[in-house]
Design a protein that fits this description.
The chain is mainly α and about 525 residues long. Helices cover about 65% and strands about 5% of the residues. Strand 1 and strand 2 form a beta hairpin. InterPro entries: DHC, Dynein_heavy_tail.
Length: about 525
């Protein structure tokens, strides 16, 4: 596509230069630029970039929708092609400036890290590693440059793997010579090559140890309240990463490196064997756990897609699967593992209950309209807790073929610490609304007898005062289901004191009404 800025009606040389580059590089039609530049806010972004010294970068992105987007910040997670323009100095760019002299500019790929890897591997490393380019350099400088180039290549290689969720192990300097080494005696070895292998083994050990020490409990320790999908995703990612590491360690070059270390009687050979053994053990564990967690994913997805008021029937089968995992998995049958999973299931149920109750609006709505939802949520929470106790009591029945039963000997509070607080909060909300319903009935009560009119007025006054007190909740902006906040409970305790006073006053009014009755018949009436 040969679109150029000459097809646009622009009168600013600076804008014409940028438009021409963007249209050619991003292969956009002129009307895309016209549509973007016709917006006053976008036009002002250009003028500010040219004139303000504190604005040094201009980014123009071709979005997935086909439009052009202008911004000053570098995209943190680029998903589309873009062009960048960076001032060479902080001086304003005049209208008659030669843009090529005052700007650094270029295009950014949708995957800049892959672009950087390609540049390092195909341009930088061949250029700086070529000994013919070092003819006039001192040997010390040549070796130093080569070492730094290789370190850069290794760093970019590792970072690119981390961005994809993989641990990539960089090969040592001279890796291309490893497979050419024969089976001669150790005295004939290239000592520099053995040293390079030993150095990279140290780096690999740190990389692999960082992977192995990661634990799925960390999001819980960080207070993030993750769902069980986080647990499943953790083990899937861990399994894939460990498999990637395992395949790298079994590569022919790496096996040749291990042979060299062994024949050279290197002190790093045992370390290499240890990390390989640890990777195999961790991979076996991850594969076993992934296999047993897979059925749970389908149940969790079904639970997630079900309305909360209908999910009660799915909780017992879910716990049944958890029990089967405990009884059959060789690696997931430890308290530390199962407690994490149960806590995350509790978090998921709490989140579903919150979405169902809409805590921001529930106290602003009519009590008669929402109390049914609160009662339903409380009933489901209680049923889950009872179902847990039932499954825990019959856990031994899940162990078949003479397998020794293993009970959940940990205290339930380790699983239900947050769940219990949330359940209590929902119960408090239910009690508050049921109390409100009872006091709302006072509006329609009329007392007979000689003082009936006066007593009825007193009852109505109690009703009015209660409504004013309850109105406090609807005026608050807090989340009444947030157990970490005490604002709701503070208001609730004040309400309890008021309710106790209202109860005494209503009781006094009723006693006065009975005292005013002339006989048993009027009391019944």
């Amino acid at each position: 596509m040969a679109s150029t800025a000459s097809e646009l009606e622009l009168d600013d040389h600076r804008v014409i230069f940028i438009a021409d580059y963007v249209l050619k590089t991003l292969k956009q039609k002129p009307d895309r630029w016209t549509k973007m530049y016709s917006v006053d806010e976008n036009k002002q972004l250009f003028m500010d970039f040219f004139e303000k010294p504190d604005l040094t970068t201009l980014i123009i992105i071709a979005t997935a929708a086909g439009s052009l987007q202008v911004q000053y910040e570098w995209p943190s997670n680029p998903k589309a092609k873009a062009c960048y323009f960076v001032k060479r100095s902080r001086d304003p760019i005049q209208k008659d400036a030669v843009m090529r002299n005052v700007l650094l500019y270029g295009d950014m790929a949708a995957s800049p890290l892959d672009q950087l890897c390609a540049f390092v591997d195909e341009v930088l490393v061949p250029l700086l590693s070529n000994e013919r380019n070092h003819d006039k350099w001192p040997k010390v400088v040549s070796k130093d440059v080569t070492r730094h180039v290789h370190n850069l290549k290794s760093t970019v290689y590792v970072v690119s793997g981390q961005a994809k969720g993989k641990t990539l192990l960089p090969l040592p300097v001279g890796a291309d010579r490893i497979e050419q080494v024969g089976d001669g005696e150790k005295e004939t070895y290239d000592r520099s090559l053995v040293h390079a292998i030993e150095s990279v083994i140290i780096e690999w050990t740190h990389q692999i140890r960082d992977v192995l020490k990661k634990d799925s409990v960390q999001p819980l320790l960080d207070g993030l309240n993750p769902s069980p999908f986080v647990e499943i995703k953790f083990w899937e990612s861990r399994g894939q990463n460990l498999e990637c590491i395992y395949e790298q360690l079994r590569d022919s070059k790496v096996r040749k490196m291990a042979e060299l270390l062994q024949r050279a009687n290197s002190s790093y050979f045992p370390s290499f064997k240890n990390i390989f053994r640890d990777v195999v053990a961790a991979l076996t564990e991850a594969q076993d756990i992934n296999m047993h967690l897979k059925p749970l994913r389908f149940q969790l997805e079904e639970l997630e897609q079900t309305e909360f008021d209908e999910c009660g029937k799915l909780l017992a089968p879910l716990l049944n699967t958890v029990c089967l995992i405990w009884a059959n998995s060789e690696y997931y049958n430890t308290p530390a593992r199962i407690i994490v999973l149960l806590q995350e299931i509790c978090n998921m149920i709490i989140d579903m209950a919150k979405n169902f109750l809409s805590p921001d609006d529930i106290l602003k709505s009519e009590v008669e309209e929402v109390i049914g939802k609160v009662r339903t949520a409380h009933k489901i929470l209680c049923s889950f807790r009872l179902s847990y106790d039932d499954h825990r009591a019959k856990l031994s029945t899940y162990f078949k073929n003479g397998k020794q039963p293993k009970q959940w000997e940990f205290v339930p509070e380790l699983v239900f610490a947050r769940f219990n607080k949330f359940q209590e909060r929902v119960e408090t909300l239910k009690n508050l609304m049921e109390t409100a319903l009872e006091f709302y009935k006072l509006e329609k009560i009329e007392l007979g007898g000689i003082q009936g009119k006066q007593l009825s007025a007193q009852v109505l006054a109690v009703h009015t005062e209660f409504c004013e007190q309850y109105k406090v909740f609807s005026e608050r902006t807090y989340d009444c289901l947030d157990t970490s906040s005490h604002e709701f409970m503070d208001d609730y305790y004040v309400m309890l004191e008021k309710v106790a006073d209202f109860d005494r006053r209503v009781a006094t009014i009723i006693c006065q009404g009975f005292d005013d009755c002339s006989g048993l018949e009027s009391m019944y009436k």
